[in-house]
Design brief:
- Strands 1, 2, 3, 4, 5 and 6 form a 6-stranded antiparallel beta sheet that branches.
- The protein is built from no helices and 6 strands.
- It is mainly β.
- The model has no long low-confidence stretch (mean pLDDT 87).
- The two termini are 12 Å apart.
- The protein has a domain of 90 residues: Glucose Permease (Domain IIA).
C-alpha cells in the first residue's frame, strides 16, 4: 500500500474486526477540516506512529487480517473528515471521490513520474498506476 498523500501516521493498531490498521493524518482543508485516510486488513505495516510519510511511500502490504482472515487479500480504504475539535463531521466517513488529485470522481492512481503538488486534501489511490514503476 502506498500513502495517498503526504501525512503523519496517527495510529498503527490491531483489532478483531479490521486486523492490522493504519491511520494517516493529511492536514486540514480550507474549511479547517482535518483529512484522514484509514487502511485496514494489512498483512504487514512498515511504519510506526508519529512517522511522516510522503505520497506514494510504501507503508505496508494488503492482506487478510481481522474478519478478512477467511476472505481474500484486500485493502479496506476509508477517508474521514474531522472538525476543529477532531470530532467526525456529519457522517463518520466521506466519499473519497471528492478528494482525488485529478478532480471529483476521477480516481488518480500513484505515478512517480507525475508532479503532485503537496495539497493535503488531494489524494491518490494507494496503489501504483498500471504499468508504472512506483519507486
Amino acid at each position: 500500500m502506498l500513502a495517498a498523500s503526504d501525512g503523519e501516521v496517527s495510529r498503527v493498531s490491531l483489532s478483531i474486526l479490521y486486523g492490522n490498521q493504519l491511520i494517516l493524518n493529511h492536514g486540514r482543508t480550507a474549511n479547517g477540516y482535518r483529512i484522514q485516510t484509514r487502511y485496514f486488513h494489512l498483512d504487514e505495516v512498515l511504519v510506526g506512529a508519529d512517522e511522516k510519510v510522503r505520497r506514494g511511500q510504501l507503508f505496508g502490504y494488503s492482506g487478510r487480517t481481522g474478519l478478512a482472515a477467511v476472505g481474500f487479500p484486500h485493502l479496506h480504504f476509508e477517508v474521514h473528515q474531522l472538525d476543529q475539535n477532531d470530532a467526525p463531521v456529519a457522517i463518520r466517513d466521506v466519499d473519497p471521490q471528492a478528494y482525488w488529485f485529478d478532480g471529483v470522481g476521477r480516481i488518480t492512481c500513484y505515478d512517480s513520474s507525475r508532479d503532485f503538488r503537496p495539497t493535503p486534501a488531494s489524494l491518490t489511490y494507494p496503489v501504483p498506476c498500471r504499468g508504472t514503476d512506483w519507486q
